[in-house]
Write the structure tokens for this entry.
Amino acid sequence: MEKSWKSLKPSRRQLFAAGAVATVASVASTTAAYAADDYGSGELGPWEGNSNKIATPTTIRQVRDANGIYMFGDSISVQDGYALAVRLNTDGILLAVNNWSGRPTAPAVDVLADWATTYGLPQRILMATGSNDIFNPPVMAAQIDRTMSIAGPTRTVYWVNVQVARTSVTDAVRLADQRNSGWINVQLADAQKRYPNLKIVHWAEFLAAKPSRMLPTMYLRDGVHTTVPLGQDARNELIAQTIT
């Protein structure tokens, strides 16, 4: 990696600006976007039938017994999860995944609760979810609190913050995506003040440090998902640095 972001302590302004790849639309366009739906990014469609990657019960128990990491993610993790498992294995860390495309955070936390009851939890949990909450960003704080309650005070929860500015939508919606991403990231930053065992993986800030012209083609292929291998490797290495 070019630079470690472990010690980064972004301000609230930086969190809202982090990863800004959207073209800033006019005030009138932004107002029109809010008229279309509550938060400007549209609505989350059905996700239950989307692609997923879920570890077998045998793997989950092996990871638990080896004090590895449980991972709960969305479509970015469906794509990048295997490569992350390979990367973490170089540090002797095993990974059990529950990644589901299009899934927002609340049902991901439901699965965390189920795994806690069914299998028990290791000492480290990785949450790579939140990108699909841009459609309803105020829900995030409660889901973070749920996660931390399930994990308890002695386990470490690593949470990858979000950067969404879809290239397939209008400028006004793309701006809403960015604003809502910042809203989610501020809720994570606020939660970190309450939970010393919550560690944020600063993906949005990593992207914000890059020239905006590089993001769609070099690190992000559609304003959300990583390019392979450059974006994937960068995000996975950032996760690995934060964990290790």
Observations:
- The longest helix spans residues 171-194.
